[in-house]
Amino acid sequence: MTMKFYKLLLIYRLQIGLALLALSGVLAYIKSWEWFWTAIILAVIAIVSHFIFGPLRLIQEAIQNNDMALAQKYMKTVYFPQLLLKPIRQGFYMLKSNMAMTNQDFKSAEDYMRKSMKSKSKLVGEESEGASHLQMGMIALQNGKRAEARKNLRLALEKGLPDKDTKAAALIQLSSIEIQSRNINMARNYFKKAKQLNPQSPEIKAQIAQMDKYIHRAGTR
């Protein structure tokens, strides 16, 4: 019950703030100063918190539930992203980039990712920076920018990634890039490191199995 109330408060925080602001005007008109100050303080807290914190938690929850329409609806309530606190702004733009990637809008995905990285905060660790470079690398690959992809994927591994599956994904993509560049020994090296991580994701396992065939074919040419 408490969580449901908190979620409703997050959803309607701005409307509640505006309603309290209007109420404070009425209270000032009738000179009810005690209630006026209560209403005005609560109104300011509600409105300011909406603009500096945003509905990031609601967006993340909607994406986790695979409800992209709802996530988009919440995103539209962020009228001035530049007012969000830096760590929240960084996360907001990253989520926007993820959604653009899902829709195969790679140009928008890159633009949002650059905004996310520009909003980097000291409160966010290097692993988050690594994840940002990984995303940039994946976007660059989709846009056919091989050199840029290589640079960002290497930076992702250097900065650190949150788990073995993510590291393996970066290494597999680097291996693929080196195969395309005819650097077979380097491709094998990246592939070997990816296998040694023993990733558990079925998708990553499938990529490793496929890459194994490519490596073998490339080596026999």
Would you kindly provide a brief summary of this structure?
The protein contains twelve helices and no strands.
Number of strand segments: 0
Q: Major sheet: size, sense and barrel closure?
A: none
Counting H and I runs of at least 4 residues, what is the number of helices? 12
Q: What is the total domain count?
A: 2
Low-confidence stretches: none
| CATH homology group of the largest domain | Tetratricopeptide repeat domain
Query: What amount of the residues lies in strands?
Result: under 5%
What does this protein look like?
With 221 residues, the chain is mostly helical. It has 2 domains: 1-53; 60-220, Tetratricopeptide repeat domain (Serine Threonine Protein Phosphatase 5, Tetratricopeptide repeat). It is built from 12 helices and no strands. It has helices spanning 2-11, 13-29, 33-53, 56-64, 68-75, 86-102, 106-118, 126-142, 146-159, 164-180, 184-196, 202-220. The longest helix is centred in the first third of the chain and has 21 residues, at 33-53. It is elongated. The termini are far apart. The mean pLDDT is 88.
Key words describing this protein structure:
79% helix; Serine Threonine Protein Phosphatase 5, Tetratricopeptide repeat; mainly alpha; 12 helices; 221 residues; 2 domains; elongated
